[in-house]
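To assess whether the prediction recovers the assembly geometry, we first specified each molecular entity separately, as shown.
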Amino acid sequence: MTQYPERVTVYEVGPRDGLQNESGTVPTADKIAFIDALSDTGLQAIEITSFVSPRWIPQLADGAEVARSIRRRPGVLYSALVPNRKGLDAALSSGMTTIAVFLSASETHNKKNVNKTIAETLRAFEDVVGPAKAAGARVRAYVSTVYGCPYEGDVDPRRVVELTKTLRDMGVYQVSLGDTIGVANPAQVERVLHMLLAEIPSDQIAMHMHDTRGTALANCLVGLGLGITTFDSSVGGLGGCPYAPGASGNLATEDLVACLHAMGIQTGVDLEKLVAASQLVSASVGRELPSRYLKAHLGQAARLLRKRS
Amino acid sequence: MTQYPERVTVYEVGPRDGLQNESGTVPTADKIAFIDALSDTGLQAIEITSFVSPRWIPQLADGAEVARSIRRRPGVLYSALVPNRKGLDAALSSGMTTIAVFLSASETHNKKNVNKTIAETLRAFEDVVGPAKAAGARVRAYVSTVYGCPYEGDVDPRRVVELTKTLRDMGVYQVSLGDTIGVANPAQVERVLHMLLAEIPSDQIAMHMHDTRGTALANCLVGLGLGITTFDSSVGGLGGCPYAPGASGNLATEDLVACLHAMGIQTGVDLEKLVAASQLVSASVGRELPSRYLKAHLGQAARLLRKRS
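The predicted structure of the complete assembly is given in tokenized form:
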């Protein structure tokens, strides 16, 4: 039988990665209530906002206010995305103690995303990672387009391994490897993770899978079997896919947590509370969220209500 | 690296299992056009209808007409669901050469579904399987609630193994094991399949997973790694879940085929033609189908159109 970890960390990215890809702007008070609700679910890590220029991501222009206003629950890691030194300073002065930097594994996606080459981006990280650590903050990194790029297609896994090692050597504590457009398949994930795990300890790697083609859980399963213990997801599947309007983006936290619990793997998350947080943000963004577990749960509840009445 | 089969059979159940769970009735001509479109995709097996009493499944009351009117493509297996001797005779006289019988692994679900105990159902099969084989037809069997029952909860996997052996000994060529309410998890699937494969050759078992909680592909992946080579699915995810209105039911054929192809596993299916068949039936049932791959595909197409205009 496959040996799976006994416990994993679910890294909730809905308030940042989810909301930045929703078309409407959610009121600041709603965001704070949403993050506070997430804090009460038992989640161990929550990315709450970004300190990227509001010209780039207007949806998260209120990052500083959100960071200052949420209720911080002891034991929960709160992080924020930071693009440069200015963002770092804003994050630190808003009380953040974990920040996240980001780049792509493919040149074209990186250029379109941050208007820099990958080499330039890595040099710019030196302005952020050192000072962040000097200020006592931990630094996470997101690598996008690990399993495929919307502009270049295939991505060389050796580049992913090299980037991950460079980031680790720079002082990043964990590299989250993103399937940005949801094209990864389980055989590919196995190959890429084998290459990575030959050189990097499993706790320094997180999986950030998108469910655009319904493969996110299958891909996570491969990582679980290889000992990966941190998985990014977005409550309800908040966020959508910017490359295919109407399609799914981030793996839904409910789908991930429900599957892990069914497998006997602990997450510390209370699924009922998670569903409540999901419904809260669903009301704020004004749309039904795509999580399969959520739909099944709400459908069953509706059926029971009809039976009773 | 995990060894996966080079080729698998995708067993399309949309025209039967899908349409029987859609609320509206689809015109017979639409069904015929739909099945003919499926025949042109390269699918190797299609379940086209059922010969169950129209009082039970009014959606498929036109089974005989459908069976007589479709264009049968050489090399494609066409099957129909049959509950008893009367249904068998109707199926045979409509030109069917493969039929499928069905029962549940849990007593309560079986009783509610066919108003018989499991033992009574197995005895009734003798009226069907022998005569079917004597008439030169092949017999498949569906076992429902293999991984959990909506009334009883857990299902003993030893009962599933015993039932599968009994059906095989009766002359059934393949037993399709259904996760009727979509509660299976990958660790459980591994345990159940290990027990089954210790006693039954892998080509006598098919997996019929539901995507109610988003786990169908992850569950199929486990079976693939253990050598299972037949997977049931429903184009577009047609059918929904009768136990949770609004939720997903059958695994979507597009999601399965796209994942298999990405893994380098052949199915013989042309994905573009599959999407066309999916859109055809989506128009007939008057709703958007839940396949993730389908939504991503249509979303990308819409984006390209907007760019061009």
